[in-house]
RNA sequence: GGUGGGUUGGCGGAGAGGUUACGCACCGGAUUGCAAAUCCGUGAAGACCGGUUCGAUUCCGGUACCCACCUCCA
């Protein structure tokens, strides 16, 4: 078995991954707040941890990995959307409108992430399904002196947890000195954060020992990870922006509620994303959702390829140029390995991923394999040991380990348009022209095909037509 | 102010203290009716200043610039 190394944010080191229980690897990744379409930045952790999920399944067996990714469906942004709809005259109670909004958003999320070839996690809990677990966790924290109730709020007492700040490398005093913390009258200390807050009649709420209210943002992940994975598990992931305060607060809550359990062994954070060198923002006009990209004609597989071409701990720049290069590469690979059944991935590819998810090295390895196949097709001299069938199937199997060239994402490139009629026509024109030396008809047809985005390959062995990535079937009308 | 990250050839983007990264683009050649595709090959790098070393783009220190987080955010 390959040794997997992962970079642990908590120790700032790359470490050998040793499962707590090889029979059941457990991973928790912070999922989306379901108030709107997922934007491109939301997609990065999905793709990153999907690759990790696939690697772990490959190494430990598909039935021995549990991947939990939550939906945050308690949130003021959702409430606001529902309130706006109600004001605009939408039918139904606020609770119903909220449920409607979260349902539709979850549906979008699934559709968009499916398009990127991301496997569904083993479990996708929703915060609203675990309110009871959150309440009992909060009660436990109060009982141990780690939290206190005041004015309908419950707050976590940051000073009661000596390790607070260890994950993000901050000290409580430094942060207070930064003076960018909200000082609320019900807080003992400015850094204390909300576990529970009161809800007015116009907001969703649940009955609790502290009155009708709703949970703070951080407690849900502590409660759900505990319910579904236990007090200690292997990997906790998310975007780097969650490192503080979200994950810091999760650690404080979970470790105080379950002392000695250890909580997550490895913390992994993906870096943020830029668009054409700039932070994605609505004001710059470079903000877009995954759906918008898909609708513009970028295949989900292309988006995935671009994501994988940068290591997850580096800032990724989404550019039009990269997307086009990715599309071209994938198009060639699909043409190369059409209808090939996958076999086991190459050791080099598994090694690349095992080195802290070096997806870029994995792509380099795929290029290497593709180049061998192209050389083979061109009739190059290859070692006697070369086994073509094996090479093709290993290529596809390798690509599939990173979620490329799977049946789920291959439609865009493999929806074959039947060009065989035109192929035969061009072939006959050409063989005539070989006799007459008049190539005008051949050139006319060839240029029309190129104009329509078809790649024309003519060689001694015959004519081959391949639809290119800019193929436009409408332009073929009348050619045959 | 605090914390963390980055700066590699035309572009993207890795690894490794000493031997070609890789992809795309470019250039030369083969091939082709002309092309395309393919094959062969050339060129091109490591922000700046010091230090360690026989040798550093790779380790250490400093400078400059860029970025992110510290507030909802993947």
From TrEMBL:
Organism: Pararhodobacter oceanensis
Compartments in which it is found: Cytoplasm
Residue sites binding ATP per the record: 282
Main location class: cytoplasm
Gene Ontology terms, MF aspect: ATP binding; cysteine-tRNA ligase activity; zinc ion binding
Pfam short name (any one): tRNA-synt_1e
Cofactor requirements of the protein: Zn(2+)
Catalyzed chemical reaction(s): tRNA(Cys) + L-cysteine + ATP = L-cysteinyl-tRNA(Cys) + AMP + diphosphate
Matching HAMAP family: Cys_tRNA_synth
Binding annotation for Zn(2+): 30, 221, 246, 250
Entry keyword set: Aminoacyl-tRNA synthetase, ATP-binding, Cytoplasm, Ligase, Metal-binding, Nucleotide-binding, Protein biosynthesis, Zinc
Complex formation: Monomer.
Motif interval(s): 'KMSKS' region: 279-283
Single biological process term from Gene Ontology: cysteinyl-tRNA aminoacylation
Top-level taxonomic group: Bacteria
Signal peptide: none
Ranges spanned by the short sequence motif 'HIGH' region, renumbered to the chain: 32-42
Family of this protein: Belongs to the class-I aminoacyl-tRNA synthetase family.
Cofactor binding: number and manner: Binds 1 zinc ion per subunit.
Protein's name in the database: Cysteine--tRNA ligase
Domain Cysteinyl-tRNA synthetase class Ia DALR: 348-413
């Amino acid at each position: 078995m390959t040794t997997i190394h992962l970079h642990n944010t908590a120790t700032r080191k790359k470490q050998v991954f040793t499962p707590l229980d090889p029979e059941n690897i457990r991973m928790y990744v912070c999922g989306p707040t379901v108030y709107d379409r997922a934007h491109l930045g939301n997609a990065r952790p999905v793709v990153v941890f999907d690759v990790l999920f696939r690697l772990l399944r490959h190494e430990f067996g598909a039935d021995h990995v549990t991947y939990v990714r939550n939906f945050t469906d308690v949130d003021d942004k959702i409430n606001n959307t529902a309130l706006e709809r109600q004001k605009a005259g939408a039918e139904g109670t606020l609770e119903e409108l909220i449920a409607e909004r979260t349902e539709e958003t979850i549906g979008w999320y699934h559709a968009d992430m499916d398009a990127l070839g991301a496997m569904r996690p083993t479990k996708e809990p929703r915060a609203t399904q675990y309110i009871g677990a959150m309440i009992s966790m909060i009660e436990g924290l109060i009982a141990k002196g780690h939290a206190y109730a005041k004015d309908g709020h419950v707050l976590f007492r940051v000073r009661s947890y000596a390790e607070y700040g260890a994950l993000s490398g901050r000290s409580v005093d430094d942060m207070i000195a930064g003076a960018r913390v909200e000082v609320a009258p019900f807080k003992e200390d400015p850094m204390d954060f909300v576990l529970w807050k009161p809800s007015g009649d116009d907001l969703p709420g649940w009955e609790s020992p502290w009155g009708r209210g709703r949970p703070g943002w951080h407690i849900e992940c502590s409660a759900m990870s505990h319910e579904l994975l236990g007090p200690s598990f292997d990997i906790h992931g998310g975007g780097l922006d969650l490192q503080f305060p979200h994950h810091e607060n999760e650690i404080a809550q979970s470790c105080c509620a379950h002392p000695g359990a250890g909580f997550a062994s490895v913390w992994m954070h993906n870096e943020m994303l830029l668009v054409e060198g700039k932070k994605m923002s609505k004001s710059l006009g470079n903000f877009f959702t995954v759906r918008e990209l898909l609708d513009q004609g970028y295949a989900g597989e292309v988006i995935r390829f671009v994501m994988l071409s940068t290591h997850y701990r580096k800032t990724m720049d989404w550019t039009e140029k990269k997307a086009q290069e990715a599309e071209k590469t994938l198009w060639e690979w699909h043409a190369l390995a059409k209808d090939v059944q996958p076999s086991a991935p190459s050791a080099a590819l598994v090694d690349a991923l095992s080195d802290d998810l070096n997806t870029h090295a994995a792509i380099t390895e795929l290029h290497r394999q593709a180049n061998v196949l192209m050389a083979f097709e061109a009739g190059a001299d290859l070692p006697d040991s070369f086994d073509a069938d094996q090479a093709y199937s290993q290529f596809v199997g390798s690509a599939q380990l990173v979620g490329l060239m799977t049946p789920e994402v291959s439609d865009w490139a493999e929806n074959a348009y039947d060009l065989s009629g035109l192929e035969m026509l061009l072939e006959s024109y050409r063989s005539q022209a070989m006799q007459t030396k008049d190539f005008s008809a051949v050139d006319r047809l060839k240029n029309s095909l190129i104009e329509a985005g078809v790649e024309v390959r003519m060689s001694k062995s015959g004519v081959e037509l391949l639809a290119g990535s800019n193929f436009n079937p409408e332009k073929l009308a009348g050619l045959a």
